Amino acid sequence: MMDTCDAIFSPGEPEEFKSIGLTAGARLPLGRLKDLQERHEFEAILYFDEDLARNSTLDADHGDFQIVPMQARPFMPLGVFLQVMAERDPEFARRMRDESPVVEVLETGTIDHYSGCVLCTRPYVKGLLL
Q1: Using CA atoms, how far apart are residues 31 and 36, in angstroms rounded to an integer?
Q2: Banded pLDDT at 5 (limits 50, 70, 90)
Q3: Burial of 81 (0-12, 13-18, 19+ CB in 10 A)
Q4: Is the pLDDT of residue 51 over 60?
Q5: Whole-angstrom distance between the N-terminal and C-terminal Cα of the chain?
Q6: What does the mean pLDDT of the chain come to?
Q7: How far, in Å, CA of 84 to CA of 6, rounded?
Q8: Phi then psi for 104, rounded to 5 degrees?
Q9: d(C-alpha 130, C-alpha 127), whole Å
Q10: What is the per-residue DSSP string for 6-32?
Q11: What is the mean pLDDT of residues 58-67?
Q12: H-helix segments, the chain
């Protein structure tokens, strides 16, 4: 999981997402999103506030919330969310396998960030936890 503090988010449809069904409007179980993220190496960013998710941009939100600890934001990377939930509720992982919450894909695109002086680009999915 990368640090997205100094990242630039560019909405669009990375070609690799079409073949796995990750397009705006798609709905899938949280567990499936986790599996796809691990297999296809993209960053999934979950939103918990519908109004913010639908009416704001990742760039604006990261700027607005950069001083707020990651675990207190109304959005966070999927890996952080799963870690926080596992710490708060040890049964969450089991329940997620049995009855996974649904995520609506709102946007896909690429994240550009620098690692030293090297530009790194990685695909992302912006999703709303329903």
Answers
A1: 9
A2: low
A3: buried
A4: yes
A5: 23
A6: 89
A7: 23
A8: -100, 125
A9: 9
A10: T-EEEES--HHHHHTT--TT-EEEHHH
A11: 94
A12: 15-19, 30-40, 50-55, 58-64, 78-88, 92-98
